[in-house]
Structure formats: structure tokens, C-alpha cells
Amino acid sequence: MSKFAQGKHAYGISDRSGFRYKYKDMRREWNGLLVGRDEFDPKHPQLGPFRKVVDAQALKDARPDRKEPQNIFVGIRTVQDLSPRPLRAFAILGQVSVATADEIVSVTGVTATGQIGSVTATGVDDSVSIAQTYTVTVQSYLGYNKFYIDGVRQDTVSLSEGSTYRFDQSDSSNSGDPLRFSTTSDGTHGGGSEYTTGVTTNGTPGSSGAYTQITVAVGAPTLYYYCTNHSGMGGTANTP
Predict the structure, then answer these.
(1) pTM, rounded to two decimals
(2) Is the dihedral of CA 121, 127, 131, 137 positive or negative?
(3) Over 70: is that where the pLDDT of 212 sits?
(4) Mean pLDDT computed over 127-135
(5) Comparing C-alpha atoms, which of 32, 8, 34, 33 is closest to residue 22?
(6) Which architecture, in CATH terms, is 130-238?
(7) What is the mean pLDDT of residues 120-143?
(8) How far, in Å, CA of 224 to CA of 138, rounded?
């Protein structure tokens, strides 16, 4: 086995500065460089490599958040002598339930009436979920009638795909001005045709309960609402 000389009288050249030092006074750094004593730089504690520590990503026996059931309260028509038994009423997914503290009656259907003793409650029609109802009126502007949506003249409305919107024309000012939809501005007055996909109507404009309703189809184009009898009354219905 070979041996190395101690180098008591030898000199070495610093790998950092190129200066000459006595070999016995030189020191080797953590990165392998042989340097003079006054050049020696110890390894900084923030220099790697480091031991990898993996943080825990999940809990053992985790429990998901509990989704509370939604209670929809329905109106009470007549209530008599509630002091002996407190009343609670709720509707869930088309089922109307009316109950006191110690008994309950449930009636399933679109429109239902349940009665317990002297307490009567009537459920509402929940077969269609209306995303928004717009109130439509007709007013004169610069000598011409215009549709006003929630009080805004020819307002631009936004209709989301898959949602149902109702344009309420029960106000008497709507008489003789049926609201319809088209893919062409001003509808049939602008050379277009009536758009009927997902559109339903009820009653006569200007009378109680009259409305035009639309369930927006997926991929529906930009629509325009207009009056079938008079031009220039309508506006835009964006379908983002």
C-alpha cells in the first residue's frame, strides 16, 4: 500500500485564488476545493442536499361535509287554535307536508292540499323551476310603444342555457302586444321567423296570468324578443 509524504516543506496552489500556501496549512472545503486557511469557507447550513419530508395529504377516517336538507315553507291559509300544538309546514321535492308536533300528513303531487284538524295548507306548483320572472310593460317612447323589462326600456336580458325564464305580460298595458322570440332582430318585422324551441305561452297579454316562457336550449343562439303585431318594440336576449 502506497504512502503519501506529509509535505512539511511543500507548497500548494489554492484552487480558489491561485495563491501559494504551505501545504500543511491548507484545508479542503466541503466542495472538494483545496484552499488556504484564510480562504476556507465552511458549508452553509442552507445548502443541500436535504432530507425529503412528505406532508400528509389526507386524514384517516375522514368524514365529508353533511349537506343539510332544504326546507321550503308553504303558506298557511287558515290557522285556528294553535296554542295546544305548535305548527310546522314544509315541502320537499314536490311533496307537501303539514304537521303538528305529534302528527303529520304528506301529499305528493304538483298541486296538493293537506289538512290537520283546523289547520289547512296548500302546496304550490313546483313542476317547473323558474330561474327568473321578468315583468313586461308597454310604454310610449317618442311616440312609439316599446317593451319595458322590469321598468327598463328594451332592456338586454341574459338567459342561461338549461334555465327557464318567464316574461310576465299580465299588466294591462300589454294588451294587443304578444311577446315572442326570434333569432333575427325585430323578429318577423326584420325578415326573421318566430323561435319556438322551449317556448310556451299562457293566457292573453294584458290579462291576469298571461306570460311567455322559455327554457333555454343548450347551444341556443342569441335571441331577440319582439311584438308579433308591432315593429320596433323589442330588444336582445343573450344566451351566454
Answers:
(1) 0.49
(2) negative
(3) yes
(4) 89
(5) 8
(6) Sandwich (2.60)
(7) 77
(8) 17
